[in-house]
Amino acid sequence: MSSSLTKNLVELERDNVLSEVKERLDQGEDPMSIFKECKKGMEEVGERYKNKEYFLAELMLSADLFKEVTELIEPYLPEKKTEEDIKGKVILATIQGDIHDLGKNILGTLLKLEGFKVYDLGVDVNPDVVVEKVKEIQPDILGFSALLTITFDPMKEVIEKLNEAGLHDKLKIMVGGGITTPLVKDYTGADFQTLDAVEGVQYCLESIKAKVVIRARGGI
Ligand code: B12
User: Fold this and answer.
1) What is the overall mean pLDDT for the chain?
2) 213, CA 20 to 30 Å: which among 48, 54, 63, 176?
3) How far is the CA of 147 from the centre of ligand 1 (A)?
4) pLDDT-based confidence at 59, cuts 50/70/90?
5) Is pTM, for the whole model, over 0.90?
6) From atom 84 of ligand 1, which residue's Cα is the shortest distance away?
7) Cα distances (angstroms) measured from residue 110 to each of 118, 136, 150, 186, 196
8) CA 174, CA 189: separation in Å to the nearest integer?
């Protein structure tokens, strides 16, 4: 049974959605459960789009609304004060030529909820900027979100540059987004691919655990 929040998001009832989210956050409700209800609504919007009940306009409106919801939720996430409290650092980007960001934003919010520090470089990001940011931030994970086939080569370019600089050994690279497949992972040289943000979060958690074990054994 869908909650009123899920239903209102599906029906694009912006004012109702935002006022319910604000109210429940003020009452101290767990931000993750509010987020999950909204995510469920987004999945339903996606279904309606697939079934041609909704069109691009509805999809865009729901995306904007979902963005507003996540902006309301984020300040209520448990504060990660010290480096030790943070599970790991993740850089996210939609590479040059691609401006789709809905999936990336969902992943970013889920990662924050899980305790990761997320550096979202945005959309249409130049490959060299990604390489520079990896050098500067030294993340545990780099995640690309891709919805267009033209992203394959620039993602590959970044990964090749990271390999050449010996930086790929220190981080895991994942690709996701509607257009990606295991073949895209192999082509670009990434370590992991998925079409599911929750699986992406799981992969980040596992990568961090593995890194801790390697460190304890005197590795990186
Ligand atoms: C919404 C949309 C748009 C919106 C984007 C709004 C926004 N802010 O993102 C707008 C209208 C702007 C748009 C523009 C265009 N679009 Co468009 N768009 C779509 C559409 C309908 C939905 C994509 C979407 O947001 N899905 C919902 C999200 C949540 O799904 P998702 O990204 O896959 O994310 C999930 C997982 O994959 C995962 N995930 C996502 N990223 C990552 C990353 C990692 C690391 C991990 C672990 C997980 C993960 O998490 C999410 C939840 O589980 C698709 C068609 C479709 N049905 O997919 C076309 C589509 C992607 N677009 C397409 C095209 C061609 C375009 C345009 C070029 C159209 C044009 N002629 O102008 C432009 C592109 C402009 C550009 N330079 O980028 C094509 C791409 C074809 C191709 N093979 O390259 C598609 C497939 C439509 C089609 N069938 O032709 N688009």
Assistant:
1) 91
2) 176
3) 4
4) confident
5) no
6) 148
7) 10, 24, 27, 26, 11
8) 9
